[in-house]
Design a protein that fits this description.
globular; 7-stranded mixed sheet; alpha/beta; two-stranded antiparallel ribbon; single chain; binds glycine
Amino acid sequence: MKTLHIDLGSRSYDIHIVPGLLDRVGEEIRKVCPKAKRIAIITDTNVEPLYGARVENSLEHAGFDTGLFAGPAGEGAKCATHLAALWEAMMHYGLTRTDAVVALGGGVVGDLAGFAAATILRGVDFIQIPTTLLAQVDSSVGGKVAIDLAAGKNLAGCFWQPKVVLMDPETLNTLDDKTFSDGMAEVIKYGCIADREFFAFLCAHPSRGEIMENIEHVLYTCCDIKRSVVEEDERDTGRRMLLNFGHTLGHAYERSGNYETWTHGQAVAAGMCAAVQLGLDLGVTERGEELRVLTGLLEAFGLPTHIDCGWEDIVKAVGLDKKGEGEDITMILLREIGLAFPKKMSKDGVLQNLKALYRR
Ligand code: GLY
C-alpha cells in the first residue's frame, strides 16, 4: 500500500495505491466528503460490468445513495452531447451541491466526469477511481478535465482537482495488451523526462508480467514525478509542459489516423523517438545510446517507434497553419535520458528540421 500527497493548498489531495481498494472506496470517500448523501458514479459500458457493482456496494455500505451512469466506451463519449445528457441525468437523480461525482474508468471517463463535476451546480466534489494504466499514471492526477470539440481534442475544459484518487492496481489485470501498452508509453515517458534510474529499472523489467510484479513501485514513481511537476505548475504555464515530451508529434500521428488508427500511447511512443532524433539533429541531446535504448524499450511493449503521417498533420501540430499565433513553439527535448528541457524554437525552424527527419 502506498500513499502520495499532492500539495496544492486548499486543493490538496491524496493518491492511494492499494491492491483490492475497489472494495473500500466507500470509506475513503466518506473521509473526504463527510456531508455527501448522493454519489453519481460515471463510468462506461466496458467498465460497468467489471467493477460497477463492487464500487456501488462499497459506497452504499458507507451510507451513500448511488446513481450509476454508464455511457459508451471510447473517445467519442467525450463530447458536448454526452456531457449535456449527463448534466440532465444528474439533476434528475437529485444531485445537490454537497454531493459528489465519481469517475470510474479510464482517461475518457475521468475527463468527462471531471468536467461534469466542475460544471454541474457550479462545481461539486470529484473523486477519481482510474482503472487503466494510462489513467493511473497520468490523466487522473493533476486536475485537467475536458471534452473534445469538432475543432480538436480537449478544447473545452478546466482545472478541477479531485478530492482523492483511489487506485486499485488489480484493475489492470482486465486490460487487453494493447491498452496496457498504451499506458506503458506514458510510464516510459516519465523515465525519459525525469528519472534515469527509473528508466533503467524499466529496461530491466521489459514485459507486462515484470511490470505487474512491481506495479505499486511503478505507479508510485510515475505519480510522484507528476506530483512534483503539478505542485510547481498547477496551471500548465511552465514546468508542466515537460509532460508533453513526445506529444507535439504524437498529436500529428493521432490526428493523421483520425484518433482511431493509433492510440494516444502509440502516438506518444513514436513522438518521443522523433523528439530524441530532433534533439540529436540539433546537437542538444547527448550523442549516446539514447535513441537505441528508447526504441528497444518501446518495442518490448509492442509500441511503434516510427509512424508515417501526412506532412499537413505535422504542420498543424506545430501550429504553423494558424495565422497570428506567434512564430515560436516550445519543443520538449532531452539532454539525456532522465533530463528533459523546454526549447523555444521558431515554428519554421522546427518544420525544417522535421522535414529532414521525415525524409530519412
Ligand atoms: N497529461 C499532461 C498533464 O497533465 O499536464
